[in-house]
Every structure is written in C-alpha cells, then in structure tokens.
Task: structure prediction
Amino acid sequence: MIETEVIIIGGGPAGSSCAWKLVEKGIDCIILDKSIFPRPKLCAGWITSKVVKLLKIEDYPGLDKLNHFIVNVWKLKMKFKTDQFSIRRFKFDEFLLKRSKAKLVQHSVLEIKKENGFFLVDNKFKCKYLVGAGGTNCPVYAAFFKESNPRDQNYSVVALEQELKYEERDDKCHIWFFQNKLPGYSWYVPKQNGFVNLGIGGKSRVLKKKGASITDCWDGFISNLKEKGLIKNLELNPQGYVYYLRNEVKTCQIDNCFIVGDAVGLATQDLGEGIGPAIESGLLVADSIINHVPYSIDSISELSINNWFFIFLRYFSRLFR
Ligand SMILES: Cc1cc2nc3c(=O)[nH]c(=O)nc-3n(C[C@H](O)[C@H](O)[C@H](O)COP(=O)(O)OP(=O)(O)OC[C@H]3O[C@@H](n4cnc5c(N)ncnc54)[C@H](O)[C@@H]3O)c2cc1C
Result:
C-alpha cells in the first residue's frame, strides 16, 4: 500500500494546479492518471491572460498570442481585439504536470472506498485527502458526488474536434455562431508551429430537439471552411467529448474529499471555457487543504466575456438558455 497525505486523480489542468500549490507548501501528494503523458486532449486550447497570470507561465514557450477574433454570427462578420492565447494541450498539460514536481503514477482508477477516515484507491493507494480531477468521467465524482450533485443534461455540451499540422493555415482565429443548425459555435484556432485546431461544440439537448446530429454539423462546418479557402482537401477524423457547463453546484466538498474542474462541471456558460475554471478550482482546493478552510467555487466566474456583444448573444440565442 502506498500512503500519502493527498491523492489527486487526474493530471489535467485542475489536478496539476492543485498539486503545484501543495508541493510548493511541502505537502506530500501523488497524482494518478490513466494516461501516459504527453497525452492527446480534445480542446481548442484557448487560454485567457488571467490563466497565464494565475499559473505564472508568462515565459512558457508554447504560448501563441491571439490578437483578434473574427466572429461570424449568421451573416454578420466582426473583428474583436483580444488578449487571449492559444496553447497545444498535448504539450501544455505535460508541462504543468512536470512543473508541479508532484509524483505522477500511471494508474486507471476503478474503485474508491472510505475506511476509518482514509481513502483507499484500488486497495493500492491510501490518503487522508482525496481530490477528484478526472474530468467528466471522474471516478471520485462517481463514487461520492453523483447523488448529491447530479448533472443537469440541459448543460451538457457535445464537441467534435481535430488538431492537425497544416502549414498553409490562416493565422487568424475564426469563430462561427449558430452555423449549420449548431446550438453553439465552431472554431478555427491557429497554433504555434503550423498547427490548427478545428472544432464544433453545442448543447446536446438542443441538438437532439432540432433533430440535428453533431456529425452533420461537422460536415457542414468542413464544407464551409473549404468554401472560404481556410482548408483544402484534408483527411479528417474528428474525435468527440462531452462535458458540462456551469450550473447549480450543490456540493463539491464532502469532508476531506473534493472535486474540481470538469468533474464538477465548471466550464463557462457563454463560451464553454473550462481550463480557467479548472485551474482556479484546483488552486482553491490546495488552499483549502493547506489552510484548513472550506472549499468554495463562488469566486469562479460563470462567464468568460462581459463584452456587450456576447451578452446580446447570451440573451438572444438558444445556446445560452
Ligand atoms: C472539443 C473541446 C474544446 C475545448 N476548448 C476549450 C478551450 O479552447 N478553452 C478552454 O478553456 N476550455 C476548453 N474546453 C474545455 C476544457 O478542455 C476542459 O474544461 C478542461 O480540460 C478541464 O480540465 P480538467 O483538469 O478538469 O480535466 P481534464 O483535462 O479532462 O483532465 C482529466 C484527467 O483525468 C484523467 N482520468 C480520467 N479518468 C481517470 C481514471 N479513472 N483514473 C485515472 N485518471 C483518470 C484523464 O486521463 C485526464 O488526464 C474544451 C473542451 C472540448 C471537449
């Protein structure tokens, strides 16, 4: 049996941020992740300047500054200034994990029990504090929070995406809202070294109600990209993932057990941004363990953008209901 003060299940941004702060304070912690890093992670890879500041990664070489967004809504096309960045999750998550200096064990967690005030993970690992950072399918959520904090399917988002090397890519970031019946948006995010991320995401329930499928929306999206000359004939094989936008969170701490990031369902209601809230929640749990204070997600914003245009979209579209 391996014993430690804290076990964090999941080495994404939520888990690695939590570990970073704990290790800095000399607290013994282990991260368990089923994947070998670097691992692929479906994500457009936008991060805000707030994330860069919180993580103190101004010098991270994989940051690519996005100066503008080209936003398309129905037939309207607008250019917005932005201070956001793009990163490649494949590299970014590995960088944050290494930087945390926490011990990383490759292990796919199946069973978690609580005995005499300690958590036993697959009868191999034992700890006093347990942090669930395993994303949508987090085993800590399934074991302890599923009943007290059920997920509301009205907030479920289905996404399809592909990241690929494409030297001829446009260097501007494009977003299309409500194209091809999509109750959400599609994106074209340029990244460093000739990579581009193509993706679409929308509310699962609304898609179903409209009788549309995410793969049909993808096909329409790719045709539009070709028409606009943003891609040529490429062999594409997009992958899908489901995660949850922020809604009422009844509980995210039970005694010494916590859930963070996508395990809670913290992505912002307007743009589905989940990296920032994952990091903030990871840091808040670390603070709770270090200083013996209750963990609360109240300080984490439910929205990404307070720009008038996005507020307009929020109120006048089905996506945000
Ligand atoms: C297509 C798509 C595009 C997105 N684009 C953006 C974007 O541009 N900007 C943004 O801010 N957010 C975006 N998001 C959301 C963002 O990716 C997530 O909110 C964020 O990754 C959540 O981080 P996390 O650490 O909670 O979980 P994750 O990053 O999912 O990490 C969870 C980790 O847990 C591990 N794990 C899971 N189960 C087990 C188990 N049983 N045992 C051991 N390990 C386990 C996994 O291997 C994984 O490494 C996007 C999401 C999708 C699907």
User: Anything to note?
Assistant: The first strand starts at residue 2 and ends at 9. The pocket of flavin-adenine dinucleotide is lined by residues 9-15, 32-35, 41-46, 108-109, 133-135, 137, 139, 159, 161, 199, 201, 241, 243, 261-263, 267, 273-276, 278 (CB under 6 Å).
